[in-house]
């Protein structure tokens, strides 16, 4: 079954050519028209409607009515010459969602789908390997969001996403930590300075810590990805990244007895 034509088997009417035809032309078997579906999950980054057939046209107008999707891995697919368009710019689509109906708008000689695949730089590449296959590494990226409680300023600091920044104010000790993921869940706990590991917390159901009490150790793990995390020691430096959650020496981030003033977390690639 075709991945882009509804209830159809692909029939290629014109192949990809790196110079003269940077896409692939498809019709349903027996030269029939079909509805056009999203190749993969993504977001509509461009769509054009109201175009008519014009075989003398140039530039983007040669596409006629079209839809362009950006996928989770940064690549694009484009669906041209549509009779009509069923989606709007900014809309999120899943694989198999209806984008429009095959047509012959723009520079087209008969109804067909002109299908393109573009790389992360928006450069057209040969779509042939992807007609019946997933785009490479197209799983939705997981992000980790976290914040710490600054026990000097006595407030929660802004949320940090992945390792775009760190959570904490260097010099001010951390006494609370809260974490969640865009997919799956995370369990974590902190060690109270010169005391003990506090109870395990899941996602943002609670926070880990005793507000007002400094922490000297952090542990976390996720059911959907591997998290890498590290801490900064007050008046000192960042310690090594850790990815385990156990009783061994590298099963937590921190040095017991040394105050933590910042935390950084990222999803392992
Ligand atoms: Zn074409």
Structure keywords:
single chain; 269 residues; mainly beta; Glucose Permease (Domain IIA); 10-stranded antiparallel sheet; 5-stranded antiparallel sheet; elongated; binds zinc ion
Q: Shape, please? A: elongated
Unique ligands: zinc ion
How would you state the average pLDDT, rounded?
A: 95
Compressed to H and E, one letter per element, the order equals EEEEEEEEEEEEEEEEEEEEE
Fraction of residues in β-strands? 35-45%
Helix content: under 10%
Question: Could you give the topology of this structure?
Answer:
Elements: E1 10-14, E2 24-28, E3 35-37, E4 42-48, E5 65-71, E6 76-85, E7 92-93, E8 98-102, E9 113-118, E10 124-125, E11 144-150, E12 155-156, E13 160-161, E14 167-168, E15 174-181, E16 186-192, E17 201-202, E18 208-209, E19 215-222, E20 227-233, E21 260-267
Antiparallel strand pairs: 1-2, 2-9, 3-8, 4-5, 4-7, 5-6, 6-8, 6-9, 9-10, 11-12, 11-13, 11-15, 14-21, 15-18, 16-17, 16-19, 20-21
The protein binds zinc ion.
